[in-house]
């Protein structure tokens, strides 16, 4: 058996202090998902250049894809890159949508500083039992834990749900009290992926349920809330994908103003995956269409990485408000 890796030895921090500062400062910490080297480089370079704290977020399937054994070394290298740029931004490594105690423990033992245990598909009681079990282990290693109440529509790693169920504010106090989770993901109208709403022609995107968020804030004053499914599905990238041979019909996301409003509230962590995927795909499609003889991966992955850096700096600066807070 290999000995456990401590996240502190990878140069990482847990999310406690990040969230406390975000709560006090009225901004949100970005949690960007990654699967490969170029995405990881783009996230840390974009956050270092905009001086933003960052949560590097990895789903269970992304961890398999990147190879669980390699991942901690990739992240350690990314932290070293940031420090070599003269940046001291805090960096956390977080498991996204963990679905079992065993997976959460394995991540904690291999250098993750934060884990999500997503029991949102279980009964309230089972969700609390599983979350409390993960919290007990995680806290013994000073690792922070995100729980979830309410179900988002769309794909959450390998679990997919047709319909969303908004978080029931009457459940949040008991959940937090009995589990001791450090933050709570809630469902207020966002969903995963690039097709967040089915709109009729001319119909506007429905607003998020800020009324539910406000009731939760009243029940849990000063407690960090997490927003999943928060990509804006940038029309510029969707159009580019469609123009260069892609087929993404009726892709629609969360408008930036809604995210800005959320970031100023108790929402301390905003999850973004799809926007990064769209940005890279758009650039790669354009290059393939315009230069069909190109076959050096650096010539398309490099510009895709540059576009992701640009997107991340833009989000940190104009949407989450985390730029300059690192
Ligand atoms: O919430 C899900 C994330 O976007 C991760 O997606 O399981 O395809 O890595 P994934
Ligand atoms: P998006 O699909 O909106 O990027 O959401 C990502 C997410 O919530 C990851 O957990
Ligand atoms: Zn999610």
Characterization of this structure:
The chain has 326 residues and is of the alpha/beta class. The protein has a single domain (11-320), classed as TIM Barrel, CATH 3.20.20.70. 46% of the residues lie in helices and 15% in strands. The protein contains 12 helices and 10 strands. It has helices at residues 16-25, 37-49, 60-66, 71-84, 101-109, 124-140, 169-179, 210-219, 235-243, 256-264, 274-290, 297-320; strands at 29-33, 54-59, 91-98, 114-117, 144-149, 154-156, 159-161, 183-186, 225-227, 267-272. It has an 8-stranded parallel barrel with strand order 1-2-3-4-5-8-9-10, surrounded by 9 helices. It has a two-stranded antiparallel ribbon with strand order 6-7. Helix 2 crosses helix 12. The radius of gyration is 19 Å and the shape is globular. The two termini are 37 Å apart. The relative contact order is 0.16. Bound molecules: glyceraldehyde-3-phosphate, 1,3-dihydroxyacetonephosphate (13P) and zinc ion (ZN). Residues 96-97, 156, 192, 228-229, 271 line the site of zinc ion.
Helix content: 40-55%
CATH homology superfamily: Aldolase class I
In this entry the ligands are: glyceraldehyde-3-phosphate, 1,3-dihydroxyacetonephosphate, zinc ion
CATH topology: TIM Barrel
H-E order: HEHEHHEHEHEEEHEHEHHEHH
Which CATH C-level class is it?
Alpha Beta
Structural class by sheet pairing and helices:
alpha/beta
Task: Strand order, main sheet: write it out.
Answer: 1-2-3-4-5-8-9-10
CATH architecture name = Alpha-Beta Barrel
What is the mean predicted local confidence, pLDDT? 96
Rg, Cα atoms, Å: 19 Å
What is the number of beta strands? 10
* Overall shape: globular
Uncertain runs are none
Biggest pleated-sheet summary: 8 strands, parallel, barrel
Strand content: 5-15%
User: Total number of helical segments?
Assistant: 12
